[in-house]
């Protein structure tokens, strides 16, 4: 029997496992994927959103706690636990030192990284390099790692953890368990149940693409909710991005994202605009667009730009659909050319062009358009024209396990003494809706470390308290 069993193999799981091992616990990681697909959604990440009161190596200027909190408050619309959120925020100020100790390297943000040089620290080599570094460190520390070991159920005695049961039927006992095995975004049946049918008789979830791993099926989340664990969050809310409709079903990752939305207009299959494309900086708004597209008939939309936008956004992995006229574009994407022309003409006529600057919330806006475009509104009038088809791309879901600052799993309002959760499986405590770039890795890293510390405390092991351990 090991001291600590960690279910999951991504960033949060690794942070929990390494932290518990550093405190002296024996640790085993159960990763559902084979070695070549290990790491879950973490392999697709790029950066960590970090609080800092002054310039820090790769981070420029300052990003104080209150600004970080206000950014999170804005994107979630207040659907967040402030105590837990501030705990994460404060933790990001110092956690990179620990990450570097375990082989993670950071680099300065490059051009095209979307206004986040001040707020986000980028991983050198991306999420795959981060995951590999943590696995190397785990191996050196003597942490047992078992691949292709999906967990089917958990043996509980009241609220106390006893063992996990693998899909193979094997029973593995431990003194403490940390759950860091993601949401249910890869479970099509659960997505269908959550989203239901719309008034047009469609099942929107049938048209969702999964940006990350196919292994996050929510098996343990569902088991625990059925067993009486307290839940947090809305099953239809999540990190849902508008991605290229030509993307693969799974593991398309960040390269499938379209970053030109704020530079043009987005229309649905009826060639009509449906939301303000220039509401705020793209890192603060990209994760609402998947849901916006999901609410459109057919769960399809099209980003339309002209030649002025080329070179102003990160090049996508799929080529644009190109046409010399708006009507030519419409024909290629099966939209009514007269309606699309009318939509573009209405938008162009409403544009009040000031000083265009994609690096600030500029004064280029519309007046009289429906909906209005708040910033970066330039007429779409310089051919050739370009279109990208969009589908909802689910990264992770927000329905999860309710926890407190110890990240204990709660049952009927009472915390378990030896069952903890970290990462996407409990992210709904902080993310009720919306997203801002890098916050997912902040949640996984800080709460992963806290889960490891809580596991050590449950074992009565001596641990080094981090600065973020106090949420007061």
Automatic annotation (TrEMBL):
<dbReference type="InterPro" id="IPR003953">
    <property type="entry name" value="FAD-dep_OxRdtase_2_FAD-bd"/>
</dbReference>
<keyword id="KW-0274">FAD</keyword>
<feature type="domain" description="FAD-dependent oxidoreductase 2 FAD-binding">
    <location>
        <begin position="3"/>
        <end position="432"/>
    </location>
</feature>
<dbReference type="GO" id="GO:0016491">
    <property type="term" value="F:oxidoreductase activity"/>
</dbReference>
<keyword id="KW-0560">Oxidoreductase</keyword>
<dbReference type="InterPro" id="IPR050315">
    <property type="entry name" value="FAD-oxidoreductase_2"/>
</dbReference>
<dbReference type="InterPro" id="IPR036188">
    <property type="entry name" value="FAD/NAD-bd_sf"/>
</dbReference>
<keyword id="KW-0285">Flavoprotein</keyword>
<protein>
    <submittedName>
        <fullName>Tricarballylate dehydrogenase</fullName>
    </submittedName>
</protein>
<dbReference type="Pfam" id="PF00890">
    <property type="entry name" value="FAD_binding_2"/>
</dbReference>
<dbReference type="InterPro" id="IPR012831">
    <property type="entry name" value="CobZ"/>
</dbReference>
<dbReference type="InterPro" id="IPR027477">
    <property type="entry name" value="Succ_DH/fumarate_Rdtase_cat_sf"/>
</dbReference>
């Amino acid at each position: 029997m090991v001291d600590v069993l960690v279910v999951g193999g991504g960033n949060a799981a690794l942070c929990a496992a390494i932290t518990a091992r550093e405190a002296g616990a024996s640790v085993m990681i159960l990763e559902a994927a084979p070695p070549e697909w290990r790491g879950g959604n973490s392999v697709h990440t790029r950066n960590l959103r970090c609080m800092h009161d002054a310039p820090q190596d790769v981070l420029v200027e300052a990003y104080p706690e209150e600004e970080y909190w206000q950014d999170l408050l804005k994107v979630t619309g207040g659907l967040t636990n402030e105590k837990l959120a501030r705990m994460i925020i404060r933790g990001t100020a110092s956690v990179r030192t620990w990450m570097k100790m375990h082989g993670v390297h950071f680099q300065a943000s490059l051009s095209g990284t979307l206004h986040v040089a001040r707020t986000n620290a980028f991983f050198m080599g991306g999420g795959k390099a981060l995951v590999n570094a943590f696995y190397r460190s785990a191996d050196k520390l003597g942490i047992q790692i078992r691949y292709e070991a999906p967990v089917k159920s958990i043996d509980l005695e009241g609220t106390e953890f006893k063992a996990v049961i693998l899909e193979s039927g094997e029973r593995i006992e431990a003194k403490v368990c940390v759950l860091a095995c993601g949401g249910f975004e890869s479970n099509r049946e659960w997505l269908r149940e959550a989203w239901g049918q719309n008034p047009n008789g469609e099942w929107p979830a049938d048209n969702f693409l999964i940006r990350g791993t196919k292994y996050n099926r929510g098996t343990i989340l569902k088991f625990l909710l059925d067993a009486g664990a307290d839940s947090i969050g809305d099953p239809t809310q999540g990190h849902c991005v508008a991605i290229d409709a030509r993307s693969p079903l799974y593991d398309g990752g960040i390269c499938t994202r379209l970053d030109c939305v704020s530079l043009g207009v987005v229309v649905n299959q009826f060639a009509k605009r449906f939301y303000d494309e220039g509401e705020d900086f793209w890192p603060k708004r990209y994760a609402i667009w998947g849901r916006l597209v999901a609410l459109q008939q057919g769960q399809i939309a099209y980003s339309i730009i002209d030649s002025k936008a080329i070179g102003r956004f990160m090049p996508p992995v799929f080529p644009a659909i190109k046409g010399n006229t708006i009507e030519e574009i419409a024909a290629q994407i099966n939209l009514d050319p007269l309606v699309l022309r009318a939509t573009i003409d209405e938008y162009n006529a409403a544009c009040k062009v000031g000083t265009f600057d994609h690096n600030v919330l500029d004064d280029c806006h519309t007046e009289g358009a429906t909906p209005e475009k708040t910033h970066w509104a330039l007429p779409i009038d310089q051919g050739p024209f370009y279109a990208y088809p969009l589908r909802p791309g689910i990264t992770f879901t927000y329905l999860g396990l309710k926890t407190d600052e110890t990240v204990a799993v709660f049952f009927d309002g009472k915390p378990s003494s030896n069952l903890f959760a970290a990462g996407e499986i409990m992210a709904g405590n902080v993310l009720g809706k919306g997203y801002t770039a890098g916050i997912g890795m902040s949640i996984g890293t800080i709460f992963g470390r806290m889960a490891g510390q809580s596991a050590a405390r449950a074992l009565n092991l001596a641990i080094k308290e981090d600065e973020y351990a106090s949420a007061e």
